[in-house]
Amino acid sequence: MVMIVKKFVIWIWKNNIKVSSWLIFLSFTGLVVSYTLAAMYTDTFSKKVFLSDDSTKGHYQIEDKCNLCHSAYNNVPQDNCVDCHAEELKQVNDSHSVKKFRDPRNADDLDKINVLKCVTCHGEHDPDATRKMGVTIASDFCIYCHEDVSEDRPTHKDLPFDGCSQCHNYHNNTALYEKFLIKHDFEDPVKSPARIEKANFGSIYKVKLKEVKPLKISDAKYPQDIVVNKSLMQTWQADGHAISGINCKQCHSDADSTSLSWVNKPTTKYCSQCHEKQERGFLASKHGMRLKQKMPAITPGKARSPMNIAEANKQMNCNACHGAHDFDSTFAAIDACVKCHDDTHSHNYKKSKHYKKLVMGRKLDDIKTSGVTCATCHLPRKVKQKNGLKYTYVEHNQNENLRPNQQMARNVCMNCHGLEFSLDALADEQLVTNNFNGNPNSSLGLMKMVRKNLQFNQSKKRSLK
Amino acid sequence: MIHSNYIGLIILLGALVSSGCSEKASEKPAGSNNVTASSGIAPQQMADALQTVINADRVAYTKFIVNRLAVEEKVIKASEHWKDDKALLLPAQLFRAGSEIAQDSGAKFSYALLSPWPLNTHNKPKTDMEKSGLDFIVKNPNKNFYGEEVLGGTRYFTAVYPDVAVVDSCVECHNNHKDSPRTDFKLGDVMGGVVIRIPL
Lengths: 465, 200
Description:
The structure holds 2 protein chains of 2 kinds. By secondary structure, chain A is mainly alpha-helical.
C-alpha cells in the first residue's frame, strides 16, 4: 500500500501536476461519493437525485423509497406492483387478470405482449411517453389479441384500435359488459326514486357488540387529574362514538400496548381497531399511501394537484377530515375537501345541481340520503354482505373511482341516473370541469352499438338453425 | 483486512459455482415433475388420472348442484355473471376457476376446457395440437388424443379428452346463448374437449 502511494506521488512530481489541483479534485470526488452513499443508504438526503425523470401522478409520493418498486438490480419485480394493487384489481373483477394467461397455450400471445407483468404497459420516469393511469404502451395495444373483434361485433369494424379506451378499460369493465348494458338500456337520465344508500356502520357495530348502551357525560371515564373542557364533553356525547358506547379510554390508549394506559393525544392508528375497512381504503388512497409505506403523511403543500396554500402543512391522517371528538361526516364529506383542493372542479361544486339538491335535502332533514357531496362520488358508499348481514360502509380510497372515472357510473351515478347518461356525462370533460352542471354534450352511442351487435348475433343464430 | 477480502471473494465464487451446479442438478430428463418413466408414472398416466378427477368433480357439480338447484328445484340461479347476479358459477366457469387456482398455487401442469364452438372466443383452439386434438375427439367421441408440442420454448405432453353434454341444461344453454356459434347440440354430443398439458 505504501509503495503504491509512493509511486503515485513520484508520478505527480514527474508529470508536474500541481498538488492544489489534486486536492480540489479529490475533495470534490469525496463529497460526491459521500453524498451518493448517504442518499443510497440513509434517509437523510432525498433519493430524487437518482431519478432519471419525474415519477407519475400515481407514484410521486413514494418516489423517495426506490426499493418499494425496484429490486437491488434496478428491475421492477411483479410482486412489488401486486403488493399495493392486487386487492383493487380483485375487487373490480380484473378483465385481464394475470391468472387468465398463465396457461402455456397463451405463449404466442405473451410473446407479442407480456400481460403477466404490469411494467409491460405501465412505465415510470418517462413523462413524455406516459398517458393517464401511468400507461406507456402504444395506445393501439388491443390489436395484439383482438384483431378479429369485428367478426362478432360488426359495430367495431371501422373503429381505430387506438380508441378502444374511450369506452373500454383494460382492467375494469364491470359497467361495460354487454349483458349489463342491455339490462340498463332505456333508463331515464334521472331515476325516480333517486337515492344514495345510507352508511350503517354504527348499527352494524351495535349488532356486533350485541348490547350497546349510549353513553352520557356522566358515564365518561378518564383520569381524575385531567381537566376536560365542558363543550368537548358535550360534543362527544352528541357524537356517534358516545352513542355507540365508546368511552374515552377506548381511543385514549397506546395502540402499541395492551396495558390500556391513558394517552392524551392518541395516534390515529387506534381508529383502525374498529374502522379497519376504512383504514385499508384510506391507506390505499392518495391521502394515505405514504402512511402505508411508513413515510410521513402527505401534506397539501407537497401534492401535485392545485391546493390551497393556507393548508399547505396539514398532515393527511384521519383527523385531517374528521374532528378529534366531533366526527361530523357532513364536514368530512364537503368542507374538509374544498378547504384544501383548489381546482375548477372543486370550486364549481357549490354551484352544481348536486349541491343544490343537498341543501334542499338538509331543509327536509333528509341529509344522509339526498343530494351529492364530494364524498358521494369520491368516497362512495359500498354495500357488502357478511355472515348474512348487509352493511354499507364508506370506501376511503378516493382514487378507486377515478381509474378511470367510468368506474363511478356503476358505483355511484347509477343510484340516481341511467347508465348511458352516466357514462356520457363522465366522458364529457367540460361537464367534469363544471362539476356536472348540465347535460352531456354528446353521446358515446354505447347502447346503439349494443343493440346493433345483439341483432347481428341473433340473425347469425337464426341462419344457423 | 486483505485476508478477509480474499475470504469474501472465495465465498462469492463458491456461491456462484454452487448456484450453477444446483441449476444443472435440477435439470431432469424428459418427463420430469415426478412423472418420469423411471419414477413410475408416465405423462399419459398422470394426464389420465388428472382427467378422471377433473371430470368427476365437474360432473358432480353439474348434476348435483347446478342441475338440481338451478334447473330442477329452481332455488338459485346459475349465471355467467355470477358475482353480479348472486348466482352459482356455470360448470365451465367452475372448471376455469379451478384451473386458475391450480396455476396460482404453482402447478406445473395445466388444464383448459376448449371447443371448436366456444361461447368465449378465448376458448377456441389456438395451437396446432389443440386444433388437431379437438378435431380428432369430435370425429372419435370415444377416444382420447395424445401428442407433444413446444410452447414458449418448453416441450409439453398434451392430452385432449372429449367433453360430453351430460344434462339437458348444457345443451339448452349453449344452443340458446347469444354468442354461441352452434345451435344444434344434443344430449351426449361432444361439445368440446379438456386439454391437459404436462411439461416434459
